[in-house]
Amino acid sequence: MKPEDFAGREPKLSLEEYFAGETRAHGLFVDRFGDLRRQFVVDIDGTWDGETLTLKEDFLYDDGETEQRIWKIRKTGPHSYEGRADDVIGPAAGKVYGNVLNWRYRLALKVGDSTWNVDFDDWMFLQADDVIINRAEVTKFGFKLGEVTIVFTKPAGRQAQAPAEPAIAAE
Predict the structure, then answer these.
(1) Is residue 123 one of the residues assigned to a domain?
(2) Could you tell me the pLDDT band of residue 69, with boundaries at 50, 70 and 90?
């Protein structure tokens, strides 16, 4: 599957439009054996300043653990994005076509008392009613560890808003 396969699909996804304001996500992690390992809720506050989309993500896991990740995402071309966060190793690279974002990055993931560097291959699909369904394969050294499934929604009465015209950095 390639992001380009979704060119022309509707509704059209714009990260800076969709994630402006409040978003809520519900997710789960299923390991490679099919066992549910974790469930979580994420409250996301997004701001777009015309150049950078900042996403403040506050995670609450089913075991009571909390975590925060702050993404800084720049649009680098008509279909491309680059993102950074403190626990992301190097830049994340994203491509948007039609209703789809493919987002790839390496994450320093806390596992017990250690940290594993794992690779994420995220596929986000914008659906009707401002719903995004996200499926991510998580791998380490090319071996599948499991999958994350997340559903993003906008709070009732808070549809995605068109931001100021995006600035595009030179590729």
Answers:
(1) yes
(2) very high
Query: Considering the entire predicted model, what is its pTM?
Result: 0.88
Q: Tell me the pLDDT tens digit for each residue of 72-129.
A: 999 999 999 999 999 999 999 999 999 999 999 999 998 889 999 999 999 999 999 9
Q: Is residue 120 part of a domain?
A: yes
Structural domain span for residue 13: 3-153
Q: How far apart are CA 148 and CA 80, in angstroms?
A: 23
Domain count for the chain: 1
Read off the CATH number of the domain in which 71 is found. 2.40.128.20
* Domain contains 170: no
